[in-house]
């Protein structure tokens, strides 16, 4: 068995707006690589009052901040670009 280098997650609204265009219902995209977690806002806003969605790109260092309290995206733009490239490459390949 080969260990994963990255983990990908997508969050969608409860009711899909258009099955032919799932991105229209996507709340967020997430990529985890090493101790870094990048959250990219989607097009949609949550359709449940208890749900939240990121307003902008968020980056967390899970080793030093496991509760994701400090968004370090502005401080580490190279890491944001690296994780976005990993995400883009994985989804273009499929």
Describe this structure in words.
- The structure is a single chain.
- This protein is of the alpha+beta class.
- It has a single domain, classed as Arylsulfatase, C-terminal domain.
- It has 1 helix and 4 strands.
- It has a 4-stranded antiparallel β-sheet with strand order 1-2-3-4, covered by helices on one side.
- The chain is globular.
- The two termini are 21 Å apart.
- The mean pLDDT is 83.
Brief account:
The chain has 94 residues and is α+β, with helices and mostly antiparallel strands.
Q: Tell me the β content.
A: 25-35%
SSE order, one letter for each helix or strand = EEEEH
> What is the count of structural domains?
1
CATH C-level class: Alpha Beta
Tally of DSSP helical segments: 1
Secondary-structure blueprint of this entry?
Elements: E1 6-12, E2 26-33, E3 36-41, E4 58-61, H1 77-93
List keywords for this structure.
4-stranded antiparallel sheet; 18% helix; alpha+beta; Arylsulfatase, C-terminal domain; 4 strands
């Amino acid at each position: 068995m080969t260990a994963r280098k990255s983990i990908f997650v997508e969050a969608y609204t409860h009711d899909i707006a258009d099955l032919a265009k799932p991105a229209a219902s996507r709340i967020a995209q997430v990529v985890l690589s090493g101790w870094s977690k990048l959250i990219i806002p989607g097009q949609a806003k949550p359709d449940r009052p208890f749900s939240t969605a990121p307003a902008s790109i968020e980056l967390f260092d899970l080793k030093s901040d496991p509760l994701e309290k400090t968004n370090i995206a502005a401080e580490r733009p190279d890491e944001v670009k690296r994780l976005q490239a990993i995400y883009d490459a994985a989804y273009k390949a499929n």
